[in-house]
Amino acid sequence: MELKYHIVTYGCQMNVHESEKMAGILRKLGYVETSTLNDADLILFNTCCIRENAENHAFGNIGALKKLKKEKPELIIAVGGCMTQEKGKTEILKQKFPFIDIMFGTLNLEELERLILLKKQGKKRVVEIREKEGEIIEFDGAYRTSYPNAWVNIMYGCNNFCSYCIVPYVRGRERSRKPENIVAEVEKLVKEGYREITLLGQNVNSYGNDGNTNSVDFAKLLDMVASIQGDFRVRFMTSHPKDFNEEVVKVMAKHRKICRLVHLPVQSGSNAVLKEMNRRYTREKYLEEVKMLRSYFPDAELTTDIIVGFPGETEEDYLQTEELVKEVGFASAFTFIYSPRTGTKAATMPNQISEDIQKNRIMRLVKLVNSLTRQKSEKYLNKTIEILCEDYDEKKGLYLGRDEYGRMGYFKFEKDVIGKFVTLKITKANGISLYGEAENVR
Ligand code: 5AD
Ligand code: SF4
Fold it and tell me: In a mutational test of the pocket of ligand 2, which residue from 14, 51, 160, 163 has the highest number of ligand atoms less than 8 Å from its CB?
Protein backbone atom coordinates (compact mmCIF):
# COMPACT_ATOMS: atom_id res chain seq x y z
CA MET A 1 0.00 0.00 0.00
CA GLU A 2 1.16 3.52 -0.76
CA LEU A 3 2.37 5.66 2.09
CA LYS A 4 0.62 8.99 2.41
CA TYR A 5 1.68 12.43 3.66
CA HIS A 6 -0.28 15.45 4.75
CA ILE A 7 1.39 18.85 5.17
CA VAL A 8 -0.12 21.69 7.22
CA THR A 9 1.43 25.04 6.35
CA TYR A 10 1.27 28.23 8.42
CA GLY A 11 2.59 31.67 7.53
CA CYS A 12 3.95 33.42 4.49
CA GLN A 13 4.70 32.53 0.86
CA MET A 14 8.23 31.57 1.88
CA ASN A 15 6.72 28.81 4.01
CA VAL A 16 4.24 27.83 1.30
CA HIS A 17 7.15 27.30 -1.07
CA GLU A 18 9.22 25.49 1.54
CA SER A 19 6.31 23.11 2.04
CA GLU A 20 6.53 22.41 -1.70
CA LYS A 21 10.19 21.52 -1.20
CA MET A 22 9.32 19.27 1.74
CA ALA A 23 6.61 17.61 -0.36
CA GLY A 24 9.25 16.99 -3.04
CA ILE A 25 11.42 15.19 -0.48
CA LEU A 26 8.50 13.09 0.77
CA ARG A 27 7.53 12.06 -2.76
CA LYS A 28 11.09 11.02 -3.43
CA LEU A 29 10.73 8.70 -0.45
CA GLY A 30 7.64 7.18 -2.06
CA TYR A 31 4.90 9.06 -0.21
CA VAL A 32 1.82 10.41 -2.01
CA GLU A 33 -0.35 13.29 -0.86
CA THR A 34 -3.59 12.91 1.07
CA SER A 35 -5.98 15.71 1.92
CA THR A 36 -7.06 14.22 5.25
CA LEU A 37 -5.16 13.76 8.50
CA ASN A 38 -6.79 10.45 9.35
CA ASP A 39 -5.35 8.38 6.55
CA ALA A 40 -1.89 9.96 6.57
CA ASP A 41 1.21 7.93 7.49
CA LEU A 42 3.23 11.09 7.93
CA ILE A 43 1.89 14.47 9.06
CA LEU A 44 4.17 17.46 8.76
CA PHE A 45 3.57 20.87 10.32
CA ASN A 46 5.46 23.71 8.67
CA THR A 47 5.15 26.33 11.40
CA CYS A 48 5.28 30.13 11.65
CA CYS A 49 6.19 32.29 14.65
CA ILE A 50 5.72 35.81 13.35
CA ARG A 51 2.85 36.50 15.76
CA GLU A 52 1.59 34.72 18.83
CA ASN A 53 -1.63 33.58 17.17
CA ALA A 54 0.31 31.78 14.44
CA GLU A 55 2.04 29.78 17.17
CA ASN A 56 -1.20 29.14 19.02
CA HIS A 57 -2.76 27.67 15.91
CA ALA A 58 0.15 25.28 15.47
CA PHE A 59 0.13 24.31 19.15
CA GLY A 60 -3.60 23.62 19.00
CA ASN A 61 -3.41 21.52 15.87
CA ILE A 62 -0.36 19.53 16.92
CA GLY A 63 -1.97 18.87 20.32
CA ALA A 64 -5.10 17.59 18.62
CA LEU A 65 -3.10 14.72 17.12
CA LYS A 66 -2.44 13.03 20.45
CA LYS A 67 -5.40 10.68 20.06
CA LEU A 68 -4.62 9.78 16.46
CA LYS A 69 -1.03 8.98 17.32
CA LYS A 70 -2.20 6.74 20.17
CA GLU A 71 -4.49 4.82 17.87
CA LYS A 72 -1.87 4.66 15.15
CA PRO A 73 1.60 4.55 16.72
CA GLU A 74 3.32 4.03 13.36
CA LEU A 75 2.13 7.49 12.25
CA ILE A 76 5.11 9.85 11.91
CA ILE A 77 4.56 13.39 13.14
CA ALA A 78 7.13 15.95 12.01
CA VAL A 79 7.40 19.62 12.94
CA GLY A 80 9.52 22.05 10.95
CA GLY A 81 9.56 25.72 10.02
CA CYS A 82 10.17 28.93 11.90
CA MET A 83 8.86 27.89 15.31
CA THR A 84 11.39 25.11 15.77
CA GLN A 85 14.15 27.60 14.97
CA GLU A 86 13.07 29.81 17.89
CA LYS A 87 15.31 29.71 20.93
CA GLY A 88 14.03 27.21 23.49
CA LYS A 89 10.93 26.27 21.46
CA THR A 90 11.91 22.70 20.68
CA GLU A 91 12.22 22.03 24.44
CA ILE A 92 8.70 23.33 24.97
CA LEU A 93 7.41 21.30 22.04
CA LYS A 94 9.10 18.16 23.37
CA GLN A 95 7.55 18.60 26.80
CA LYS A 96 4.08 19.48 25.60
CA PHE A 97 3.92 16.95 22.79
CA PRO A 98 6.13 13.94 23.55
CA PHE A 99 4.57 12.17 20.56
CA ILE A 100 6.34 14.37 17.98
CA ASP A 101 8.77 12.11 16.06
CA ILE A 102 10.85 14.57 14.06
CA MET A 103 11.81 18.20 14.53
CA PHE A 104 13.88 20.19 12.08
CA GLY A 105 14.39 23.88 11.28
CA THR A 106 14.21 26.29 8.37
CA LEU A 107 18.00 26.20 8.14
CA ASN A 108 18.21 22.45 7.52
CA LEU A 109 15.01 21.52 5.70
CA GLU A 110 16.94 19.73 2.99
CA GLU A 111 17.93 17.19 5.64
CA LEU A 112 14.35 16.00 6.03
CA GLU A 113 14.97 12.84 4.01
CA ARG A 114 17.85 11.76 6.25
CA LEU A 115 15.82 12.52 9.39
CA ILE A 116 12.87 10.44 8.20
CA LEU A 117 15.16 7.54 7.42
CA LEU A 118 16.70 7.81 10.91
CA LYS A 119 13.23 7.66 12.41
CA LYS A 120 12.35 4.64 10.30
CA GLN A 121 15.51 2.90 11.46
CA GLY A 122 14.01 2.94 14.94
CA LYS A 123 15.26 6.15 16.54
CA LYS A 124 12.65 7.27 19.04
CA ARG A 125 12.82 10.94 18.32
CA VAL A 126 14.92 12.81 15.80
CA VAL A 127 15.60 16.46 16.57
CA GLU A 128 18.05 18.37 14.44
CA ILE A 129 17.98 22.14 14.34
CA ARG A 130 20.84 23.98 12.72
CA GLU A 131 21.90 26.99 14.81
CA LYS A 132 23.55 29.02 12.12
CA GLU A 133 22.80 29.44 8.44
CA GLY A 134 25.19 27.66 6.08
CA GLU A 135 25.90 27.95 2.38
CA ILE A 136 22.84 27.88 0.14
CA ILE A 137 22.06 24.36 -0.98
CA GLU A 138 20.45 24.42 -4.43
CA PHE A 139 17.32 22.26 -4.43
CA ASP A 140 15.33 21.55 -7.55
CA GLY A 141 12.95 18.88 -6.35
CA ALA A 142 10.04 21.04 -5.17
CA TYR A 143 6.60 19.52 -5.73
CA ARG A 144 4.76 22.65 -6.83
CA THR A 145 1.11 23.09 -5.94
CA SER A 146 0.39 26.63 -7.06
CA TYR A 147 0.23 26.30 -10.87
CA PRO A 148 0.08 28.54 -12.91
CA ASN A 149 2.17 30.50 -10.40
CA ALA A 150 5.61 29.33 -9.36
CA TRP A 151 7.44 30.63 -6.30
CA VAL A 152 11.14 31.20 -6.78
CA ASN A 153 13.43 32.05 -3.87
CA ILE A 154 16.04 34.63 -4.74
CA MET A 155 17.44 34.96 -1.24
CA TYR A 156 17.03 33.68 2.28
CA GLY A 157 17.20 35.41 5.66
CA CYS A 158 17.06 39.03 6.71
CA ASN A 159 19.58 41.54 8.09
CA ASN A 160 17.21 44.30 9.08
CA PHE A 161 16.26 43.59 12.67
CA CYS A 162 13.09 45.63 12.69
CA SER A 163 12.57 45.86 16.43
CA TYR A 164 9.31 43.86 16.48
CA CYS A 165 10.36 41.09 14.14
CA ILE A 166 11.58 37.60 14.89
CA VAL A 167 12.46 36.69 11.30
CA PRO A 168 16.19 37.55 11.46
CA TYR A 169 16.50 35.29 14.52
CA VAL A 170 14.85 32.28 12.92
CA ARG A 171 16.00 32.62 9.33
CA GLY A 172 19.52 33.91 9.80
CA ARG A 173 21.45 36.50 7.80
CA GLU A 174 20.78 37.34 4.16
CA ARG A 175 22.10 34.86 1.60
CA SER A 176 21.47 35.51 -2.09
CA ARG A 177 21.19 32.73 -4.62
CA LYS A 178 23.45 32.97 -7.66
CA PRO A 179 21.69 34.81 -10.50
CA GLU A 180 22.52 32.05 -12.99
CA ASN A 181 20.75 29.49 -10.80
CA ILE A 182 17.67 31.70 -10.50
CA VAL A 183 17.55 32.35 -14.25
CA ALA A 184 17.98 28.64 -15.00
CA GLU A 185 15.13 27.79 -12.60
CA VAL A 186 12.79 30.35 -14.18
CA GLU A 187 13.66 29.20 -17.70
CA LYS A 188 12.81 25.66 -16.73
CA LEU A 189 9.53 26.69 -15.11
CA VAL A 190 8.47 28.73 -18.12
CA LYS A 191 9.25 25.78 -20.40
CA GLU A 192 7.13 23.59 -18.15
CA GLY A 193 4.21 25.98 -18.67
CA TYR A 194 4.18 28.15 -15.53
CA ARG A 195 2.78 31.55 -16.45
CA GLU A 196 3.51 33.58 -13.37
CA ILE A 197 6.83 33.70 -11.57
CA THR A 198 6.96 35.24 -8.10
CA LEU A 199 10.44 36.09 -6.87
CA LEU A 200 10.64 35.68 -3.11
CA GLY A 201 12.86 37.23 -0.48
CA GLN A 202 12.35 38.88 2.91
CA ASN A 203 13.81 42.06 1.45
CA VAL A 204 14.32 41.59 -2.29
CA ASN A 205 15.91 45.02 -2.70
CA SER A 206 19.00 43.96 -0.81
CA TYR A 207 19.59 41.02 -3.17
CA GLY A 208 23.32 40.77 -3.83
CA ASN A 209 24.39 42.93 -0.88
CA ASP A 210 26.10 39.88 0.56
CA GLY A 211 28.58 39.84 -2.32
CA ASN A 212 27.39 36.43 -3.58
CA THR A 213 26.03 37.50 -6.93
CA ASN A 214 28.94 38.87 -8.91
CA SER A 215 27.59 42.42 -8.54
CA VAL A 216 24.12 41.55 -9.86
CA ASP A 217 21.67 43.63 -7.80
CA PHE A 218 17.90 43.22 -7.65
CA ALA A 219 17.17 45.58 -10.56
CA LYS A 220 19.59 43.63 -12.75
CA LEU A 221 18.20 40.28 -11.64
CA LEU A 222 14.65 41.43 -12.36
CA ASP A 223 15.79 42.54 -15.81
CA MET A 224 17.40 39.14 -16.41
CA VAL A 225 14.30 37.24 -15.32
CA ALA A 226 11.89 39.42 -17.32
CA SER A 227 14.12 39.05 -20.40
CA ILE A 228 13.50 35.29 -20.49
CA GLN A 229 11.47 34.36 -23.58
CA GLY A 230 7.89 33.31 -23.04
CA ASP A 231 4.37 34.49 -22.25
CA PHE A 232 4.41 34.83 -18.49
CA ARG A 233 4.27 37.54 -15.85
CA VAL A 234 6.66 38.39 -13.06
CA ARG A 235 5.92 39.41 -9.49
CA PHE A 236 8.30 40.02 -6.63
CA MET A 237 8.00 40.37 -2.88
CA THR A 238 8.79 41.78 -0.38
CA SER A 239 10.22 45.23 -1.09
CA HIS A 240 11.59 47.32 1.77
CA PRO A 241 10.94 51.07 1.60
CA LYS A 242 14.45 51.83 2.86
CA ASP A 243 15.93 50.16 -0.25
CA PHE A 244 13.21 50.32 -2.92
CA ASN A 245 14.50 52.50 -5.75
CA GLU A 246 14.06 54.00 -9.18
CA GLU A 247 16.38 51.46 -10.82
CA VAL A 248 13.82 48.75 -10.07
CA VAL A 249 10.99 50.91 -11.42
CA LYS A 250 12.97 51.57 -14.60
CA VAL A 251 13.26 47.83 -15.14
CA MET A 252 9.49 47.51 -14.53
CA ALA A 253 8.99 50.12 -17.26
CA LYS A 254 11.19 48.16 -19.65
CA HIS A 255 9.19 44.94 -19.41
CA ARG A 256 5.42 44.66 -19.69
CA LYS A 257 5.81 41.19 -18.17
CA ILE A 258 6.44 42.69 -14.73
CA CYS A 259 3.23 43.34 -12.80
CA ARG A 260 2.77 46.97 -11.88
CA LEU A 261 2.05 46.15 -8.31
CA VAL A 262 4.51 46.64 -5.49
CA HIS A 263 4.11 45.12 -2.06
CA LEU A 264 5.75 47.81 0.05
CA PRO A 265 5.12 47.31 3.78
CA VAL A 266 4.86 50.67 5.50
CA GLN A 267 4.10 49.30 9.01
CA SER A 268 3.18 52.77 10.37
CA GLY A 269 2.49 56.28 9.14
CA SER A 270 4.17 57.92 12.13
CA ASN A 271 7.83 58.86 12.03
CA ALA A 272 8.16 58.39 15.78
CA VAL A 273 6.85 54.83 15.54
CA LEU A 274 8.90 54.04 12.41
CA LYS A 275 12.01 55.11 14.31
CA GLU A 276 11.22 52.86 17.25
CA MET A 277 10.50 50.04 14.81
CA ASN A 278 14.00 50.55 13.35
CA ARG A 279 12.57 50.76 9.85
CA ARG A 280 15.13 53.34 8.70
CA TYR A 281 12.83 55.43 6.50
CA THR A 282 10.38 58.23 7.16
CA ARG A 283 6.78 58.71 6.19
CA GLU A 284 7.98 61.39 3.75
CA LYS A 285 10.46 59.03 2.08
CA TYR A 286 7.77 56.39 1.74
CA LEU A 287 5.36 58.86 0.11
CA GLU A 288 8.11 60.04 -2.23
CA GLU A 289 8.68 56.47 -3.40
CA VAL A 290 4.98 56.06 -4.10
CA LYS A 291 5.07 59.28 -6.09
CA MET A 292 8.13 58.13 -8.00
CA LEU A 293 6.47 54.81 -8.86
CA ARG A 294 3.31 56.56 -10.04
CA SER A 295 5.29 59.04 -12.11
CA TYR A 296 6.25 56.03 -14.24
CA PHE A 297 2.89 54.26 -14.05
CA PRO A 298 -0.05 56.40 -12.97
CA ASP A 299 -2.07 53.20 -12.59
CA ALA A 300 0.51 51.40 -10.42
CA GLU A 301 -0.97 49.75 -7.36
CA LEU A 302 0.56 49.19 -3.96
CA THR A 303 -0.20 46.73 -1.23
CA THR A 304 1.22 46.97 2.26
CA ASP A 305 1.56 45.56 5.77
CA ILE A 306 0.59 47.64 8.79
CA ILE A 307 1.07 47.01 12.49
CA VAL A 308 -1.12 48.79 15.04
CA GLY A 309 -0.58 49.01 18.78
CA PHE A 310 3.21 49.01 18.62
CA PRO A 311 4.72 50.02 22.04
CA GLY A 312 4.32 53.75 22.57
CA GLU A 313 1.93 54.28 19.63
CA THR A 314 -0.33 57.20 20.55
CA GLU A 315 -3.75 57.96 19.09
CA GLU A 316 -2.02 60.73 17.14
CA ASP A 317 0.48 58.23 15.70
CA TYR A 318 -2.32 55.88 14.76
CA LEU A 319 -4.23 58.66 12.98
CA GLN A 320 -1.12 59.38 10.93
CA THR A 321 -1.26 55.79 9.72
CA GLU A 322 -4.89 56.32 8.68
CA GLU A 323 -3.91 59.50 6.85
CA LEU A 324 -1.13 57.71 5.00
CA VAL A 325 -3.42 54.86 4.02
CA LYS A 326 -5.86 57.36 2.50
CA GLU A 327 -3.13 59.29 0.78
CA VAL A 328 -1.56 56.25 -0.89
CA GLY A 329 -4.85 54.49 -1.66
CA PHE A 330 -3.55 50.96 -1.25
CA ALA A 331 -5.12 48.25 -3.38
CA SER A 332 -5.18 46.18 -0.21
CA ALA A 333 -3.40 46.02 3.11
CA PHE A 334 -2.55 43.27 5.58
CA THR A 335 -3.21 44.66 9.03
CA PHE A 336 -1.85 43.22 12.24
CA ILE A 337 -2.02 43.84 15.96
CA TYR A 338 1.48 44.12 17.38
CA SER A 339 2.49 40.85 19.01
CA PRO A 340 5.52 40.83 21.34
CA ARG A 341 8.09 38.21 20.30
CA THR A 342 10.57 37.00 22.90
CA GLY A 343 14.12 38.00 22.03
CA THR A 344 13.17 41.05 19.94
CA LYS A 345 13.92 44.58 21.08
CA ALA A 346 10.30 45.76 21.06
CA ALA A 347 9.18 43.01 23.43
CA THR A 348 10.97 44.74 26.32
CA MET A 349 10.02 48.29 25.40
CA PRO A 350 8.04 50.28 27.95
CA ASN A 351 4.56 51.58 27.06
CA GLN A 352 3.14 48.36 25.70
CA ILE A 353 -0.37 49.16 24.46
CA SER A 354 -3.43 47.64 26.07
CA GLU A 355 -5.38 45.02 24.17
CA ASP A 356 -8.51 47.19 24.20
CA ILE A 357 -6.76 50.04 22.43
CA GLN A 358 -5.09 47.65 19.98
CA LYS A 359 -8.41 46.04 19.10
CA ASN A 360 -10.09 49.37 18.69
CA ARG A 361 -7.38 50.59 16.33
CA ILE A 362 -7.31 47.45 14.20
CA MET A 363 -11.10 47.58 13.81
CA ARG A 364 -10.99 51.16 12.60
CA LEU A 365 -8.10 50.43 10.25
CA VAL A 366 -9.67 47.33 8.73
CA LYS A 367 -12.84 49.31 8.10
CA LEU A 368 -10.89 52.03 6.35
CA VAL A 369 -8.85 49.61 4.25
CA ASN A 370 -11.96 47.67 3.21
CA SER A 371 -13.80 50.79 2.20
CA LEU A 372 -10.86 51.85 0.01
CA THR A 373 -10.66 48.41 -1.61
CA ARG A 374 -14.42 48.50 -2.32
CA GLN A 375 -14.21 51.95 -3.87
CA LYS A 376 -11.46 50.67 -6.15
CA SER A 377 -13.57 47.67 -7.15
CA GLU A 378 -16.41 49.88 -8.29
CA LYS A 379 -14.10 51.73 -10.65
CA TYR A 380 -13.59 48.48 -12.55
CA LEU A 381 -17.23 48.31 -13.71
CA ASN A 382 -17.50 48.09 -17.52
CA LYS A 383 -13.72 48.06 -17.84
CA THR A 384 -11.70 45.25 -19.37
CA ILE A 385 -9.01 43.50 -17.37
CA GLU A 386 -6.69 40.61 -18.05
CA ILE A 387 -6.54 37.87 -15.47
CA LEU A 388 -4.47 34.72 -15.22
CA CYS A 389 -6.96 31.92 -14.60
CA GLU A 390 -5.80 29.97 -11.55
CA ASP A 391 -8.70 27.84 -10.35
CA TYR A 392 -12.30 26.76 -10.63
CA ASP A 393 -14.74 27.53 -7.82
CA GLU A 394 -17.02 24.50 -7.53
CA LYS A 395 -19.60 26.29 -5.39
CA LYS A 396 -19.93 29.27 -7.67
CA GLY A 397 -19.48 27.23 -10.84
CA LEU A 398 -17.06 29.89 -12.05
CA TYR A 399 -13.41 30.12 -13.04
CA LEU A 400 -11.27 32.68 -11.25
CA GLY A 401 -7.97 34.45 -11.53
CA ARG A 402 -6.17 37.67 -10.69
CA ASP A 403 -5.21 40.64 -12.74
CA GLU A 404 -1.70 42.03 -12.46
CA TYR A 405 -2.79 44.12 -9.46
CA GLY A 406 -3.92 41.06 -7.57
CA ARG A 407 -7.65 41.78 -8.05
CA MET A 408 -9.77 38.62 -8.22
CA GLY A 409 -12.07 38.18 -11.22
CA TYR A 410 -14.70 35.41 -11.68
CA PHE A 411 -16.21 34.26 -14.96
CA LYS A 412 -18.08 31.43 -16.65
CA PHE A 413 -16.41 29.35 -19.31
CA GLU A 414 -17.35 26.17 -21.11
CA LYS A 415 -13.93 24.53 -20.90
CA ASP A 416 -10.95 24.42 -18.57
CA VAL A 417 -8.88 27.59 -18.95
CA ILE A 418 -6.68 27.26 -15.86
CA GLY A 419 -3.23 28.59 -16.78
CA LYS A 420 -4.56 30.84 -19.55
CA PHE A 421 -4.61 34.63 -19.69
CA VAL A 422 -8.25 35.69 -20.04
CA THR A 423 -9.60 39.13 -20.92
CA LEU A 424 -12.68 39.94 -18.86
CA LYS A 425 -15.27 42.65 -19.37
CA ILE A 426 -16.34 43.49 -15.82
CA THR A 427 -20.10 43.41 -15.33
CA LYS A 428 -20.37 43.30 -11.55
CA ALA A 429 -18.24 44.44 -8.61
CA ASN A 430 -19.14 42.79 -5.35
CA GLY A 431 -17.03 43.98 -2.43
CA ILE A 432 -13.52 42.97 -3.34
CA SER A 433 -14.43 40.47 -6.08
CA LEU A 434 -15.15 41.26 -9.71
CA TYR A 435 -17.36 39.32 -12.09
CA GLY A 436 -17.08 39.49 -15.84
CA GLU A 437 -17.51 37.97 -19.24
CA ALA A 438 -14.59 36.32 -20.97
CA GLU A 439 -13.74 38.03 -24.23
CA ASN A 440 -10.43 36.56 -25.18
CA VAL A 441 -8.31 33.61 -24.06
CA ARG A 442 -4.62 33.13 -24.72
N1 5AD B 1 3.62 41.65 15.48
C2 5AD B 1 2.72 41.95 14.53
N3 5AD B 1 2.99 41.93 13.22
C4 5AD B 1 4.24 41.58 12.85
N5 5AD B 1 4.81 41.47 11.65
C6 5AD B 1 6.09 41.08 11.79
N7 5AD B 1 6.36 40.94 13.11
C8 5AD B 1 5.23 41.25 13.78
C9 5AD B 1 4.88 41.29 15.17
N10 5AD B 1 5.75 41.00 16.12
C11 5AD B 1 4.12 41.79 10.40
C12 5AD B 1 4.81 42.92 9.63
C13 5AD B 1 5.43 42.20 8.47
C14 5AD B 1 4.45 41.08 8.24
C15 5AD B 1 4.96 39.94 7.45
O16 5AD B 1 4.12 40.66 9.55
O17 5AD B 1 3.80 43.81 9.19
O18 5AD B 1 5.58 43.02 7.33
FE1 SF4 C 1 11.17 41.25 9.67
FE2 SF4 C 1 11.96 43.73 9.04
FE3 SF4 C 1 13.25 41.60 8.02
FE4 SF4 C 1 10.77 42.16 7.18
S5 SF4 C 1 12.60 43.46 6.92
S6 SF4 C 1 11.56 40.12 7.77
S7 SF4 C 1 9.82 42.97 9.04
S8 SF4 C 1 13.17 42.19 10.19
Answer: 160
